[in-house]
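testing teh design pipeline on a random one, pls ignore if ur not involved
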């Protein structure tokens, strides 16, 4: 995937476990390192593909993957950390909910 950020603009700091903040996306809310709610104009399938590749490249073990018409979700573990990722389309935008937590 090409870097969609303008030259000189740094990517937002990832969540714990190096879970990146999808770009291009607007951060709606975020806690320090464990939760983020984003919105993007990108297609949910592209966002899901991005996070699937992030999990594989990072060595995460996917324990649940659900793909439905209205939502795609992942639950994965890496060591003592878990992540839940939900991607959905609503009102013409793609919502992305990210949560990391100890397991």
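output:
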């Amino acid at each position: 995937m090409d870097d969609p950020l303008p030259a000189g603009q740094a990517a937002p700091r990832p969540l714990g476990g190096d879970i990146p903040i999808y770009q291009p996306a607007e951060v709606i809310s975020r806690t320090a390192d464990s939760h983020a709610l984003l919105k993007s104009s990108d297609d949910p399938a592209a966002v899901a593909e991005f996070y699937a590749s992030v999990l594989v490249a990072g060595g995460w073990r996917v324990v649940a993957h659900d793909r439905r018409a209205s939502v795609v979700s992942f639950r994965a573990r890496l060591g003592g950390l878990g992540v839940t990722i939900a991607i959905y389309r609503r009102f013409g935008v793609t919502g992305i909910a990210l949560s990391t937590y100890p397991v």
